[in-house]
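User: Need the bound-state model for N-hydroxy-L-asparagine:
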Amino acid sequence: MKQWGFIATWCMAFDACFEASKELAIGTKKASDIVEHAIKKIEDYPFYKSVGCGGLPNTDGVVELDAAFFDGDTWDFGGVAGVKNIANPIGLAKKISTDRFNCFLVGEGATIEAQKQHLPFKNMLTERAQKAWEQKKQDILLKNLSPYDGHDTVGAVTLDQKGSMAAAVSTSGLFMKKSGRVGDSPFSGSGIYVDSEVGGCVATGLGEDIMKGCLSYEVVRLMEEGLSPMEAGEKALNRFEQKMLKKRNHCGAISLAILNNKGEWGIATNVEYSFVVSTQDIPATVFIAHRKEQKTIIEKASEEWLQAWYKKTHRDTITI
Ligand code: SD4
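Assistant: Bound-state model below.
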């Protein structure tokens, strides 16, 4: 059997990773279809507060979603930003990725295209997300709290047995973002990048900072120079963070998920970060990572951690 692999940001991608790993092991479906399906599954799940249905709204109480799809063989790339009530933003991103022109659509234009393509629409604002929005508005007014919390973009990179790679991301962006605000996620090179001749990378964290360093591109570039996924991730993030500290005195939360075309994976992060991986050698597994003295420490998530995560994720109220 040839090498295959799947890596994705955050624990919420576990079920999708498990399903993807079964398909990748069989080896008949393409990386591009598997990654789209994986992201759709997460977009459909209403308890994830940062992706698709159930995602947290902007300051006006509207759920605006961003997504991107990238084919590492053909470099078909599609991005959508600020889309409303399109049930699967990733589906639209993939659909438009094959267009020679118009492969990045925003707002109203994206809605029209989704209608033309007969893609499903639904109300993406759940009661739970609406309640969290009302609570947050109160907190901002009364306790002077920062609006920009609660963000966990899902991004995944996939390698199939034929050596094809693909990546996809989907997000509701920052909670309480301004209407029309777009982060790094749907932008090629920032939130997503993949080249089947090398590997791929996806990012999660503060988009305003990630896009300054074009981090996903930088990681793939370093892998092309011969670095392993782990080395490329750490080098790109450490270097970027040093520059940010020099220029701006601070750097936001950033985490990366990386896979190369040999099925080797890596991550880099400057905060505690959960991610999921499956390869020919590893069954679908949730790992937790953090950084200590510029080095990334990775541990398998314990049963207690997973149970606590599940309980928190499925509570009636969202805690930010
Ligand atoms: C954004 N990068 O819109 C996204 C948010 C995110 O984990 O990933 N949060 O800036």
